[in-house]
Amino acid sequence: MTDKSDITLTINGKAHAIRVEARRTLADAIREECGQTGTHIGCEHGVCGACTVLVNGEPVRSCLMFAQQADGKQIRTVEGLARGDEMHVMQRAFMENHGLQCGFCTPGFLMLAVGVLERELDISDHDLVDVLSSNLCRCTGYQNIIKAVRAAAIEMRQS
Amino acid sequence: MSAPAKPVLVGKSVLRKEDGPLLRGQGRFAADINFPDQIYMRVVRSTYAHGRIVSVDLAPALAIPGVVAAWSFKDVADIPPIDFRLTRLEQLAAYRQTILAKDKVRYVGDPVAVVFAEDPYLAEDAAEHVDVEIEELPVILHADGEVGEFRDGLPTETALIEKNYGDVDAAFAGAHATVELTLSIGRHSGVPMETRGAIGRYIAETDMLEMYGAAKVPHWNRDQLAKMFGRTAANTNLFEGHVGGGFGIRGEMYPEDVLVCLAALRLGRPVKWIEDRREHLIAANHSRQQTHHIRAAIDINGNILAIDDEFFHDQGGYMRTHAATVPDLAAAMLPGPYRIPAYRARGHIRLTNKTPGGTYRAPGRYESTFVRERLLDAVAAKVGIDGVEVRRRNLIPVSEMPVTRALETLGTDIVLDSGDYAKLLDKALDGIGWSTLLAQIDERRKAGELVGAGIGMFVEKSGLGPFDDVRITVGIDGKIEVVTGAASVGQGVETVIAQICAEKLGAGYDAISVIHGQTDRIARGLGAFASRVSVMTGEATRQAALKLRDNALAAASELMQLPADQLDIINGEIVRLDGSTGPSMSLAEIAKALEPGSNLVGDKEPGLFAEASFESKHMTYPYGVHVAVVSLARDTGGVTVERYLVAYDIGKAINPMLIDGQIVGGVAQGLGGALYEEFSYDDRGEPLAVTFADYLMPTAREVPQVDVIITEDAPSPLNPMGLKGAGEGGANAVGAAIAAAIDDALGQPGAITRLPVSPQRVRELINGIA
Residue limits of the Aldehyde oxidase/xanthine dehydrogenase a/b hammerhead domain (chain B) (predicted)? Predict the structure, then answer.
C-alpha cells in the first residue's frame, strides 16, 4: 500500500499540498493531512452526513470520496463559514434556535444547509426537510435544526 | 440614584456558552486529539457469538512493517476484569468482562486481540492478519428460555432482582378481576453520533498516566484505571473534551479504554483508538431488551389493588459497569405515578450471546413505563372506561405527597418528593385539545382512516447524590472559573451552571467559564448520569456562589469602608445600596486586593474564591405526560406520528430552551425504540444491524413537531431552588404512548405487545392476523 500520490486540496481557499494513498478518504485527508478537524466522521459509509463538505459547491459526503478525487477542486468546510469573528448567518441561526446540543453532527448540517441554499435559495419548506433528512442528529430531534435553517434561509433571501 | 436592577438569569432561555466553538468547527472531540509520536490501536473482534478460543496467532500481524505490538489475552492476563460502578451485587463479579477474551468468546464483537501500528489504516490491515481460531458453541439468544452455563457451572441467570411491599397474594385473592399481559421491549441503544474514542499517554518524567476522550464519569474511571494498573489517583488523570452525545452509554469504562492506557504505559508512546461505526453497533453497550409477564388485581371500578410482575432482562454476553442497574430501576420505578397498595417484581438477569448491555436514557423506565401503561390501558378495557379515566382513578393525589414507596434503587429509598400528577394530566389534555382531537379522530375514522391517540404517564427520577463539589475563583482579570466534578455530554452543563453562578454571585454570564470532566482540577466528582447535574452541581454552584459573594463583600466592605449589608454585586461590580456616591470596585479589583502578600489577606488563604459541597441522600422525582396521535397506512402498515405532546414538571426550570431541547431530543430517541431501531440477530447470534443502513434511527422526516409544556407546579423540597432533572423525561413514555395510539387507531385494545412496532406487524393487525 505505498501507491501514494501528490495532490493539492484547496480548502476554504487555502492550498494544501499533500501526499496520500489512493484509498485515503477525503474526510481523513481533510482532518489529518490538512488539520481541519471541524469535519467529523460519524459512520464512514455515507449515511449520517456528519462529514458533509462542499466540493465545487455541491454537498458531498467526504467519507465516500477519495482524497485523490478532490485533487484541484474547491473544498469548503465548516472552518470557512465565519468571516473572522462574524459567524455565518447559518451558524448564528443554529445558535439562536438551539439547533445543536453535542455539536458533533452540526458541521455536516451547516455545510449541507449552506450548500443547498446557495444553490436553491427558494427551496420550499417541504423540500428543505427532505434535504435535511439526509443527515442524522441524535440530540435535537431535528425540530430546532429545521427552524434554524428556515430562519437562515429567510435572512439569506433578504440579503 | 438607585442601583441598577439585579439581572435574573435562572429561568431565562439564554443562549448557550457551548455553541461558539462547536459552530466554528473548533470542537475537541476524541478523534481531534493527537500527540506527537502516537500509534494507533485496532481491536480484533470475535466473529462468533459463542465459541471456545482454540488459538490466537499474532505473528502474521507482527510481521507487517509498521506494526509495533499485538496482544491476546495472555499478554494482558494480569489486568483484572472491569468492575461495577453502580448497583453492585457480589454474585455478579464472576460475570465481569476481561479486557480481552480469555478462553471463550461470548458475542460477535467480543475483543480477542489488539494490534498497535504507526498508522490507523495499517493497524486495520494488520488486524485482519491476526489468525483467530474459534470452535463454535451453541448460542443462547433468548433471555426467557432455559438457563444455560456461563462457564465452570455458573448459570446464565446471574441474579434475581426482587422488590416488593404489601400483601400481593391476598390482593389477588380478593380482587374483582385480574388483568394479565406479556410484553416485550426490543434491543436498542443510545448510538451517539460520535463513536467512542480514547487516547492514552504516559509521561515517564512525572510518572503520569493520562487518558483523553473521557466522558460521563471521568473520576470513577480514573480511580478504576489506577486500581487496575496498581497506580494511584494522584498519578492518573482523565480529560474530557467535547463529547458527541452520551445517552448513558458513552463514557462508561470499556475494554478499549483500559487497553489504550495499558499500551501507553507499556509501549511508552501515545496510543489512539477511534471506534468505527460497525464496531460501535456491536461493541458499545446495548440496552432495553426485556420481556415482562405482568398482572394487576383490580376492583370493580378499575382501581388497582396490586401489581405482580416477573421479567427477564437480556444482558448480553457479560455484566458490565452497570451491573444490575437497568433491571433494578425497571423494578423499582414500575409503579410510576399510581397508587399501588401491593407490589411485587421479580427480574431475572440473564446472559445471552449478544452485545453486553448498560444504561440508555431513562434506563429501566422506558421499559417499565411501556409495561405499566399497557397494563393501565388493559385495565381500562377490562372495566369499560377510557385511558384518561383509568389514570385519573389511580393517580396518587397531591394531598398524599411526599410518598414513600417502600422500594429502593441506586442506593436510595424511593420517596416521591413532590408532584401534582392529575394537574399535569389536565394540562396535557388541554394542551393537545383532547376533546376536539377525539372528535376529529372520530370524523376521520368515519371517512375510513386508521387514526388514534394514546397517553403515557410516568414518574422520572433525577438528581442522584450523594455529593457534588464546586469551587469558584475570580481571577485578577475578572474572569470567573467554576470548577466542577460534573461532566458534559452535550446537554448544556456550562450554560446552566454559568446561569446559576452569574445570578447568585452577581456576575456577568459572559465572564464565567465552567470546567468539567478534568480530574486534575478537582479531587472528586460523580460526572453526568441519572439526570443529576442540574440538581447536584447546580445546587453546589448556588451555595459556592453565595459564599463567594459574601467573601467578596467582606473584602469590599473593608476596602470601601462601608458595611457589607449596604453593598451588592451587580454584573461583577460592587454597588452601594444606599445610593451614596464614591469610588466603586469590580470583582477583579477585589481579587487583586486579595493576591498573596497583600495586606487584606493577612493570615488567610489568598485569592477570591469559595467552595461548596452539596450532599443529598434522596433523588428528586419529576414527572410527565406524553400524548401521541398516529395514523396507519392500510397498504404498508406504516405508522405516521402526526402529533406529539409532552407535559413535564421540572420543579424549577433553569433554562427552558435547554429543557425543551432535552425533551424533544428524548422523544426522537424514544420514537426510534418504539418504531424503528432494533439490534436483531440471526439464529447463530450474528448481528443483523451493523450499519446505519440496517439500524434505522429517526431522521427529520420521521420526527414530528413536538409540543412541550414545561410546568413548575411541584418544586423539589430537597434543594432550595426546587430543581429536578430533565434529561430522560422526553424518552421515558414514548413506547407507551405510541403503542396506545396504535391500538386506538387499530380499534384493537391491547394489540401492541412488543416494541419496536414494525410495519409488518401493523399490517398483520390491520388484516386481522393475530
Answer: 24-138
What value does the mean pLDDT take over residues A140-159?
Answer: 97
What is the least distance, in Å, from the CA of A14 to any CA of chain B?
Answer: 16
CA–centroid distance for B590 within its chain: 41
Helix axes A125-132, A143-158, angle to 10 degrees: 130
CB within 8 Å of chain A, chain B residues 480-509? 489-492
Test the A interface: residue of B14, B22, B728 with most A CBs within 10 Å: B22
Report B:632-661 residues touching A (Cβ under 8 A): 657-658, 660-661
Cα–Cα separations (whole angstroms), residue B352 to A98, B46, B291, B292: 41, 15, 14, 17
Size of interface A-B (CB pairs under 8 A): 169
Neighbours of A105 (CB within 10 A): 29
Say if residue B3's pLDDT is above 70. no
What is the average pLDDT score of chain B? 97
* Contact criterion met (CB below 8 Å) for B457 and B336: yes
Rg (CA), chain B: 28
pLDDT of residue B96: 98
Tell me the pLDDT tens digit for each residue of B367-380: 999 999 999 999 99
B334-366: pLDDT as tens digits = 999 999 999 999 999 999 999 999 999 999 999
pLDDT digits (tens, 9 = 90+) for B712-743: 999 999 999 999 999 999 999 999 999 999 99
Instruction: Please count the other Cβ atoms lying within 10 Å of the Cβ belonging to residue B145.
Output: 12
Could you give phi then psi for residue A118, rounded to 5 degrees? -70, -30
Q: Which residues pair with B641 in a beta bridge?
A: B630
Nearest in space to B453 (alpha carbons), one of B468, B467, B463, B439:
B439
pLDDT digits (tens, 9 = 90+) for B520-546: 999 999 999 989 999 999 999 999 999
pLDDT at A139 over 80: yes
Angle formed by the axes of helices A106-119 and A125-132, to 10°? 140
Count Cβ neighbours within 10 Å for each residue of B397-427 and write b for 16 or more, e otherwise: eeeebebebebebbebebbbbbbbbebbbbb
* A70 and A55 Cβ atoms separated by less than 8 Å: yes
Instruction: Please give the average per-residue pLDDT across B414-420, as a whole number.
Output: 98
pLDDT in the model for residue B6: 81
Task: Report the gap between the CA of B663 and the closest CA in chain A (Å).
Answer: 9
Cα distance between residue A148 and residue B249, in whole Å: 29
The pLDDT of residue B502 is above 90? yes
Min Cα distance B539 → chain A (Å) is 23
CB B486 within 8 A of CB B528: yes
- Cβ atoms of B227 and B85 closer than 8 Å: no
Q: Which DSSP letter does residue B184 get? A: E
Chain A CB contacts of B698 below 8 Å: 142
Report residue B17: phi and psi, to 5°: -70, -25
Q: In terms of DSSP bridges, do strands B639-649 and B706-711 run parallel, antiparallel, or are they unpaired? A: parallel
Average pLDDT of the segment spanning B194-222: 98
Q: Under a CB-based contact definition with an 8 Å cutoff, are residues B354 and B340 in contact? A: no
Nearest Cα residue to B333 out of B718, B732, B645 = B732
Q: What is the pLDDT of residue B741?
A: 98
Q: What is the pLDDT of residue B582?
A: 81
> Do B25 and A79 make contact, defined as CB atoms within 8 angstroms?
yes
Distance CA B351, CA A29 (A): 42
Q: How confident is the model at residue B4 (pLDDT cuts 50, 70, 90)?
A: low
Helix (H, G, I), strand (E, B) or coil at B453: strand
Class of residue B231 by CB neighbours under 10 A (exposed 0-12, middle 13-18, buried 19+): middle
Q: Which of B15, B19, B23 to mutate against chain A (most A CBs within 10 Å)?
A: B23
Whole-complex ipTM: 0.98
- What is the spatial distance between Cα B308 and Cα B181, in angstroms, rounded to a whole number? 11
